[in-house]
From TrEMBL:
<comment type="similarity">
    <text>Belongs to the glycogen phosphorylase family.</text>
</comment>
<comment type="function">
    <text>Phosphorylase is an important allosteric enzyme in carbohydrate metabolism. Enzymes from different sources differ in their regulatory mechanisms and in their natural substrates. However, all known phosphorylases share catalytic and structural properties.</text>
</comment>
<protein>
    <recommendedName>
        <fullName>Alpha-1,4 glucan phosphorylase</fullName>
        <ecNumber>2.4.1.1</ecNumber>
    </recommendedName>
</protein>
<dbReference type="InterPro" id="IPR011833">
    <property type="entry name" value="Glycg_phsphrylas"/>
</dbReference>
<dbReference type="InterPro" id="IPR035090">
    <property type="entry name" value="Pyridoxal_P_attach_site"/>
</dbReference>
<keyword id="KW-0328">Glycosyltransferase</keyword>
<dbReference type="InterPro" id="IPR000811">
    <property type="entry name" value="Glyco_trans_35"/>
</dbReference>
<keyword id="KW-0119">Carbohydrate metabolism</keyword>
<comment type="function">
    <text>Allosteric enzyme that catalyzes the rate-limiting step in glycogen catabolism, the phosphorolytic cleavage of glycogen to produce glucose-1-phosphate, and plays a central role in maintaining cellular and organismal glucose homeostasis.</text>
</comment>
<keyword id="KW-0808">Transferase</keyword>
<dbReference type="Pfam" id="PF00343">
    <property type="entry name" value="Phosphorylase"/>
</dbReference>
<keyword id="KW-0663">Pyridoxal phosphate</keyword>
Length: 832
């Protein structure tokens, strides 16, 4: 072998500073094709990413090979969204080579932090559901679980949000514009996926009735693989994302007609399937393209899963022992009908057997109870787009309803609620019901949410299958959300209790006793202050607003949604602003209200609330009479990267959804783990956070889920009365309605005021306002006592160990998937 080539081989593996430096210089020239003098920051990012990628390929292959050789049971996490964020810092930290990399770059005269900034944020998701999927990938790899992620390689991720005159404006997000160094295209891994056409009945070889799907349009799904590095770098799993490709024969038909342009047009249309992520969070658009996206990635994934299974098996009897398929919400639920189709139509498995296999293989996670988010596809659309699946769904439904207890009891109302078809109005397929019926386990994402699932949307199914619903409270990966995002605190923790917490977050409990240690509190505060300085600089860059580092950083970051009640927060801000102006001699606790979050482009109310926050901010931030004691900022373009700056810097975490409406929340966990105190309702995982951090270390206010339910059911709630009896609320609303914040358009906020009054205040903003203000006052009072505040902050961090996604994922592994850790076998490392 050429000596130079051979030396490169060794360097590809070397983890020391010299080896890294040499391979950076090599990569820059030979793969990025740039001279060090001409290289941009982006060139260096690609260089470093490619060199780091080299260092994980061997172990990635070892991992995959070990799973294959042991024919291990794998879990397949099917998700329409993976909200990954940047990968460089994550890969370096999980490989344990951050310091070496930093030094190697130093020697070339570069700063790692600058290089990291050139990486685009992979935003293939909207919010909680997508970010949870990304945390789960990290935990599966870190726990050595044979886990695969399957999704779509969207060319355009979640839109970029900008504010123009205070209004949200969406711009396309182009994360792939300059290439993606982490992915491996697999042009040979291609599966056909069909749409439209019709179903033909025929007699099979033994004379049985059988069906085939004919005259369909075909699209190809092409795989792109991204390695998922577990902590310590031993296990490296795979995220396989599908991209749509037009088939060649599809185009040839047109060429023969001489219609070249038409052929190319058709190709573009076909490939639109993986073009863009739908920007709705927890609401369903009902668009045909969305249904096609769901089927596209689900079908390709199932074909891939069966191919892998058939490498070791000749029939499907043991599929459930070798594959667990988790449906991340109902988006991939069509997979239940698709697996039935593949087994029955393509592999000749008998129906009942196929159904047993399907149910034993699938499980389903529900992420929201919001009725508008429960997917229900028009039967007519389904019949047209997926005709064979529609038949299969009818068949599943008929067999189920025939056997159900409701039929026996003659309870027709119940029967129609259990049906996979909603017969009211234009008929629709209820994907939640299909997912429930086709799964052996169904889970909610917090204790409260799971209880509510049993009582509400799935009450009838729960009565039918009382063992099926179970709870898996969400978690977050401590690697990204503490170890990487909050280096000052991570270093402090490690200095006291060692670094075992990174892998076993339960160990962080040992910090609890340090809450009474004056020196530790001082250091904890210093770490927080450092993070706040970093956020303040970011705020200044992004919004031009200067905030006081020593003010109380009060943070609400999440998608803009009425049920999350950013409106409640901004109303309290207005009330506080009024109090400060009324009492200029009082020494106020300075407060900085920090908001961030995107609204779905078609969600007008959420966008109006964005404008309101920006309008209020403009008035408050420029009013000298509050002496900088109150600042309000709404940061644009909230994404994973922004969250990594915001979470570590927060003092107060706003988790103020209308009780019963937030399934779990995960931002609540990130903030508490980073030492923020929560102000929140008893909703979602807030309930469990309170149990872990203790009642004294959290500010709970407002109606409970039960009270919300009763209040709404009674019909006796009158927001106008509530407003009339609360002068500070009334004054805040009057200011909005008289155009104090919108002099250019005094009626701008009429729809908001309308919703709060005549609209009946569905989200109970007015009902919770008074208690919320009291809780805010309590928080401000406590903040004056920095020692006491810090003590509670430390207790929050110390008691959040249970909320690691490692705990969550191991619960899924043992209680749902029956999947076990598999240690990759590494052949003796070759020496070049
Ligand atoms: C979200 C829930 O709203 C949030 O409470 C939860 O923490 C998160 O899922 C992860 O479980 N739901 C969605 O993002 C969604 O799109 C269909 O639901």
């Amino acid at each position: 072998m050429d000596a130079r080539y051979k030396s490169r081989e060794i360097e590809r593996r070397s983890l020391d500073v010299d080896g890294l430096k040499r391979s950076f210089l090599e990569w820059l020239v030979y793969s990025v094709g740039k001279d060090a003098r001409a290289a941009t920051r982006r060139d260096w990012f690609h260089t470093v990413a490619l060199a780091v990628r080299d260092r994980l390929v061997d172990r990635w292959m070892d991992t995959t090979r070990t799973y294959y050789q042991q024919d291990a049971k794998r879990v397949y996490y099917l998700s329409l969204e993976f909200l990954i964020g940047r990968l460089l810092t994550n890969s370096l930290a999980n490989l344990g080579i951050t310091d070496q990399c930093r030094q190697a770059l130093d020697r070339i005269g570069l700063n790692l932090d600058d290089v990291v900034e050139a990486e685009p944020d992979a935003a293939l998701g909207n919010g909680g559901l997508g970010r949870l999927a990304a945390c789960f990938l990290d935990s599966m790899a870190s726990e050595a679980l044979p886990g695969y992620g399957y999704g779509i390689r969207y060319e355009f991720g979640l839109f970029e949000q900008r504010f123009e005159h205070g209004w949200q404006v969406e711009y396309p997000e182009q994360w792939l514009q300059f290439g993606n160094p982490w992915e491996f295209p697999r042009p040979e891994v291609l599966y056909p996926v069909q749409f439209y056409g019709r179903v033909e009945e025929f007699r099979d070889s033994v004379g049985e009735r059988a069906y085939r799907w004919v005259d369909a349009e075909r699209v190809l799904a092409m795989a792109y693989d991204t390695p998922v590095v577990g902590y310590g770098g031993d296990t490296i799993n795979t995220l396989r994302l599908w991209s749509a490709r037009a088939t060649r024969d599809f185009n040839f038909g047109h060429f023969n007609d001489g219609a070249y342009m038409k052929a190319v047009e058709q190709k573009v249309l076909t490939e639109n399937l993986s073009r863009v992520l739908y920007p709705n969070d927890a609401t369903e658009g009902g668009k045909e393209l969305r249904l096609k996206q769901e089927y596209f990635f689900t079908s390709a994934s199932l074909q891939d899963i069966l191919r892998r299974y058939l490498q070791h098996h000749s029939n499907f009897d043991s599929l459930p022992d070798k594959a667990a398929i988790q449906l991340n919400d109902t988006h991939p639920a069509i997979g239940i009908a698709e697996l039935m189709r593949l087994l029955v139509d393509q592999h000749g498995v008998l129906w009942d057997k196929a159904w047993d296999i399907t149910r034993a293989t699938f499980s389903y996670t529900n992420h929201t109870l919001l009725p508008e988010a429960l997917e229900a596809w028009p039967v007519r659309m389904m019949e047209r787009v997926l005709p064979r699946h529609m038949q299969i769904i009818y068949e599943i439904n008929a067999k189920f309803l025939n056997r159900s207890k409701a039929r026996a009891a003659g309870d027709n109302a119940r029967l129609s609620r259990l049906s996979l078809i909603d017969e009211r109005g234009d008929r629709r397929v209820r994907m939640g019901n299909l997912a429930f019926l086709g799964s052996h386990k169904v889970n909610g994402v917090s204790a409260l949410h799971t209880e509510l699932m049993k009582q509400t949307v799935f009450a009838d199914f729960h009565a039918e299958f009382p063992e099926r619903i179970n709870n898996k409270t969400n978690g977050i990966t401590p690697r990204r959300w503490l170890h990487q995002a909050n280096q000052p605190l991570a270093a402090l923790i490690t200095s006291r209790i060692g670094n075992g917490w990174i892998k076993d977050l339960g160990q962080i409990k040992a910090l609890a006793e340090k809450a009474d240690d004056l020196v530790f509190r001082e250091e904890f505060r210093r770490a927080k202050r450092k993070n706040k300085k970093r956020l303040a600089a970011y705020i200044a860059r992004q919004t031009g607003v200067d905030v006081q580092v020593d003010s109380l950083f009060d943070v609400q970051v999440k998608r803009m949604h009425e049920y999350k009640r950013q409106l409640l927060n901004i109303l309290q801000a207005i009330a506080l602003y009024n109090e400060m102006r009324d009492n200029p001699t009082v020494s106020w606790v300075p407060v900085t209200k920090i908001f961030a979050g995107k609204a779905a482009p078609s969600y007008h109310m959420a966008k109006l609330i964005i404008k309101l926050i920006n309008d209020v901010a403009k008035v408050v931030n420029h009013d000298p009479s509050v002496h900088d004691n109150l600042k309000i900022v709404l940061l644009p373009n909230y994404n994973v990267t922004a969250a990594e700056i915001i979470m570590p810097a927060a003092d107060l975490s706003e988790q103020i959804s209308t009780a019963g409406m937030e399934a779990s929340g995960t931002g609540n966990m990130k903030l508490a783990l980073n030492g923020a105190l929560t102000i929140g309702t008893l909703d979602g995982a807030n309930v469990e956070i309170r149990e872990h951090v203790g009642d004294d270390n959290i500010f709970i206010f407002g109606l409970t889920a039960e009270e919300v339910n009763d209040l709404r059911a009674s019909g006796g709630f009158n927001p106008r009365e509530v407003i009339a009896s609360n002068p500070s609320l009334k004054r805040a609303l009057d200011m909005i309605s008289t155009g104090v914040f919108s002099p250019d358009d005094p009626h701008r906020y009429h729809p908001i005021l309308q919703a709060l009054t005549d609209g009946g205040d569905h989200f109970l903003v007015t009902a919770d306002f008074a208690e919320y203000c009291e809780a805010q006052q309590e928080a401000m009072d406590l903040y004056r006592d920095q020692e006491e505040w810090t003590r509670k902050a430390i207790l929050n961090t110390a008691n959040m160990g249970w909320f690691s996604s490692d705990r969550t994922i191991m619960e899924y592994a043992t209680e749902i998937w029956d999947v076990h850790p598999v240690k990759p076998e590494h052949p003796a490392e070759t020496e070049g």
